[in-house]
Each structure stands twice: as structure tokens, then as C-alpha cells.
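Milestone 3.1: sequence recovery, worked example.
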């Protein structure tokens, strides 16, 4: 992938309206795969979303479009309030560090969490497992769980002086479907591959390898997903 393609990849958060996609960014649908116990395990790519013929690719963020994932202008009819409330500082400034064993430093930015659930299973969660990472098997499990986190709320490094290790993710926007005990629900837009997110006022958020954007319209951390779609059981 060329450097120019990556540099042109951007999602513009249009005021009280759609997400406008710039650059040659592939859009796909992904479904969460869960265990028989309801534990998130991995993601399955279902299909590529066709955008050929669209002069402008606008993705719904009010949650009410009849042409999801695309915007159909419904935000105007419902008076959608898309006011952006997310902090514009950096992960490094917001992070906390989970104390644990050797061989890994686990970092968390709660403000980015989309509540998808890859950070735990029926026996333990990452915070608890981090205390046991002297055991390389547990350490590998924690690394794998962090790398499946779509929002990038969790990251890790090998030690305090090393750079974070990020999974090698494609330049892509995934329209996600999550599995719950009540059935499938519409999850966030999952941006991967260092796609820039630009405010409606032209300022930009910190560029990150992976972030999740709200598409139910109800997040209190817009434009980022805060997991509200799970509380309201958002549907396509």
C-alpha cells in the first residue's frame, strides 16, 4: 500500500450529519464470532460493501438511515444532534497502566472503549490476567485479547521503555455486527490502518491504528463509540 494512499485516508465528521469518507478505503461488513458461553472470540468478514457509482461516500452516524451503512439524509428529518464531545488530547495523556507480571506492560484508555467485550471471558478479564503474566501462556493470551480489541482502548508494550505493539491491520472501514444473548445488534464503524478522523471544525484527532466510531447516534463520546449501542440494542 502506497504512502500517498495512507496519507489520503480520512473520515470527516460532518456537523450533525454523516461521516464523509476520503481516499481509497475499502468498506466491509464484519460479524463478531462468539463462543457457546457468549464470549467474543474473533471477527469474520462477511462481504465487501459496494461503493461504485457514489460520488461521495457518506456513512450514517445518526442511526436512523434506511440505507445503512450509508447516509440517506434522515439526520435532517430527526434533528440529529451530532455534537462532538470526545477529548482531543492523546492516548499517552489519557492512559492508565495495569500493574502485572513481567514481559508486558498493559495500557488502557477507558474513553475509547466501545464495550465489545474482547477484554474478558467467563473466567477472567485482562486486568486480572495481567497480574499473572509471569506465565508466558497467560501473557500470550493477554496479547491476543488486546489485539482483537477494535477500539484500541487496550494496547501493550514489552516493557516500559518500548513502543506499543499494534496488530498489522488493513486500511479499511468495517461495518460491524455484534452478537449478544438477545441476538445480533449493529456495532460501531471500525476504522483500521491509521485512518485520520477530522472534526467538523477542521481539527483532527490523534491518528491511531484502530478506532471505533458511533453509528447508533447515541454515544456520549461522539464521534467515538462508547458502547451505548449495546444498551439500546441498535439494529440495522
Amino acid at each position: 500500500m502506497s504512502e500517498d494512499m495512507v496519507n489520503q485516508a480520512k473520515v470527516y465528521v460532518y456537523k450533525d450529519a454523516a461521516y464523509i469518507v476520503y481516499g481509497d478505503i475499502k468498506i466491509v461488513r464484519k460479524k463478531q464470532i462468539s463462543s457457546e458461553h457468549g464470549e467474543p472470540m474473533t471477527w469474520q468478514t462477511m462481504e465487501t460493501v459496494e461503493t461504485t457509482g457514489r460520488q461521495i461516500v457518506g456513512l450514517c452516524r445518526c442511526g436512523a438511515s434506511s440505507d445503512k451503512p450509508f447516509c440517506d439524509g434522515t439526520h435532517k428529518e430527526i434533528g440529529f444532534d451530532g455534537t462532538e464531545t470526545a477529548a482531543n488530547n492523546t492516548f499517552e495523556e489519557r492512559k492508565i497502566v495495569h500493574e502485572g507480571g513481567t514481559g508486558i506492560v498493559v495500557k488502557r484508555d477507558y474513553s475509547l472503549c466501545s464495550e465489545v467485550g474482547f477484554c474478558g471471558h467467563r473466567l477472567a478479564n485482562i486486568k486480572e490476567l495481567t497480574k499473572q503474566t509471569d506465565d508466558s501462556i497467560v501473557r500470550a493470551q493477554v496479547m491476543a485479547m488486546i489485539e482483537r480489541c477494535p477500539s484500541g482502548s487496550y494496547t501493550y508494550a514489552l516493557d516500559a521503555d518500548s513502543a506499543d505493539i499494534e496488530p498489522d491491520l488493513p486500511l479499511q472501514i468495517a461495518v460491524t455486527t455484534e452478537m449478544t444473548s438477545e441476538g445480533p445488534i449493529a456495532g460501531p464503524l471500525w476504522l483500521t490502518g491509521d485512518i485520520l478522523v477530522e472534526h467538523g471544525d477542521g481539527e483532527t484527532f490523534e491518528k491511531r491504528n484502530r478506532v471505533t466510531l458511533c453509528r447508533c447516534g447515541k454515544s456520549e463520546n461522539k464521534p467515538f463509540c462508547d458502547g451505548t449501542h449495546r444498551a439500546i440494542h441498535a439494529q440495522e
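Residues 1-236 form one domain. The longest helix spans residues 136-147.
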